[in-house]
Amino acid sequence: MLPRPDALRHRHGLGDWRRHLVTLRATLDRVLFHIGPPEPAPIVLGQRRIYVLPTPAGLAFAAALLVMLIASINYNLSLGHALVFLLGGVSVASIVHAFRNLLHLSFTPGRAEPVFSGERAGFHVIVANHRNARRPSLRLGAHGAVVPFEIDAEDRADVNIPVATTARGWMTLGRVRIETTYPLGLIRAWSVLVPDQRCLVYPTPEPSPPPLPEGPSSTPGRRAGSAGDDDFSGLRRHQPADSPRQVAWKTLARGGPMLTKQFTGMDGGKIHLDWNDLPADLGTEARLSRMTAWIVAAEQRGLAFALTLPTVSIAPGQGSEHSANCLRHLALFGTEGPADA
Asked: What are the alphabetically sorted keywords of the record (predicted)?
């Protein structure tokens, strides 16, 4: 059933409102916080980059002081006046402490290890304190994640910001917020920065991929780790393409799930992962997901493999570096720019 015109107009209006909100936020960031492209490291917080406002607790505290002041004036209470001005002075002093808790902090982007799509990327930010004073009650946040930490005098902290990933390719850290409510929780001092940092996100491996494709053997016999008939190596979940001779019928007869026997062959042939050998009905992301799962499986079993994509061919190799290079090309397949950028 087709959606009604009023529903389409509602969705269209909601999308326009969100786009206007994103544009407004970007404009405010650029005008108020001077936020633009990624900043070169190190990023040092000067006086003009730190902003101070009361927290909800600070607003409630100010309202309570106002009520106390009105009551002291109404009843002519000298001690009431003294208490109000004392607490007011303490709250004003907390503004200075909150501001100084962020002043001259230095931020340097750290390493962000590649992850698979769906996992959490870990963006490491090195925060340095060059002052001879401890910096307590700090919070660093990005993409909805907030990490509390503190830094000792003339020390540094390696803060890891976990960020959820949803798509392959390069993921930038983007807008980062540093804030503190030290010392009383009445005042919030914060600043916004954009470190030049990104993380490579690999495609999500297919949960239950078919067996690794057969490759040419260098010696008579079967490849190591192939689905041969030599040495039994274990059971795995049954695939529709598996031969009935490899089904673990005894396990199935006992009421267990349908599993397939795996065998280890004799020699160490190479595997060729070719984009054109995949089924024609597989989409681009499904192909990348399957090839990612095959690369992970080949690396875990110590097998040599070659990779052929429509845009690049990678010679046979093995090991973590070879796998990382192949996964990098899969992550950046179809995106702008070369894979070695």
From this structure: Membrane, Transmembrane, Transmembrane helix
Asked if residue 113 and residue 78 are part of one domain, the reply reads yes
Q: Which of 202, 217, 248 is the last residue of a domain?
A: 202
Asked whether residue 146 falls in the same domain as residue 194, the answer is yes
Cβ pair 63, 84 in contact under 8 A: no
User: Are residues 38 and 154 both part of a single domain?
Assistant: yes
**Residues 273, 140 share a domain:** no
| Phi, psi (deg, nearest 5) at residue 39 | -95, 145
Average pLDDT over residues 192-206: 94
Q: Looking at residues 27-44, what average pLDDT do you find?
A: 75
* Mean pLDDT within 285-306: 92
Q: Do both 238 and 285 map to the same domain?
A: no
Domain range holding 242?
232-264
Angle between helices 56-75 and 78-102 (to 10 degrees): 160
Residues 69 and 153 occupy one common structural domain: yes
Is the peptide bond preceding residue 136 cis, with omega within 30 degrees of 0? no
Coarse DSSP helix, strand, coil percentages of the chain, rounded to the nearest 5 percent: 35, 30, 35
Cα first-last separation, the chain:
47
d(CA 159, CA 110): 9
Distance, CA of 112 to CA of 282 (rounded, Å): 31
Whether residues 294 and 148 share a domain: the answer is no
Mean pLDDT of 76-92: 93
Total domains present in the chain: 3
Same domain, 212 and 120: no
Q: What is the pLDDT of residue 218?
A: 41
